[in-house]
């Protein structure tokens, strides 16, 4: 019963996100908006309900099956992907490079911040 309650809650958030996107004309997918709303709700609440924990663990254990529709979609639209291979490749390469650079910068900033914080704490204890 916990799984059913949890999956129902997840689907309700997806539905609310989808309805909100369609009513407001927001240019993002409804499930993404629903996921953001769920995240904010869980953040405000400060904990995850057991039913959501059970449902999400069950879904994650079968995550590989969720890639099957994407693979089928790629095969169904292979000719279009083949026609647009250059923009797709450029988008993948550029987004990968941008992500790697952003991650490296965040890591450097975080490391510097932690070093400065620990040095200040060391001075405070002296």
UniProtKB/TrEMBL annotation:
Q: Which Pfam families match?
A: LrgA
Where found? Answer: Cell membrane
The keyword Membrane appears for this protein: yes
- Its recorded name reads Holin-like protein
Instruction: Alphabetically list the UniProt keywords.
Output: Cell membrane, Membrane, Transmembrane, Transmembrane helix
Q: Which InterPro entries is this protein grouped with?
A: LrgA/CidA
Q: Indicate yes or no for the key word Coiled coil.
A: no
Q: Transmembrane residues, as ranges?
A: 20-44, 56-79, 85-107
Q: Which GO terms describe its cellular component?
A: plasma membrane
**Major site of localization recorded for this protein:** membrane
Provide the membrane topology annotation: Multi-pass membrane protein
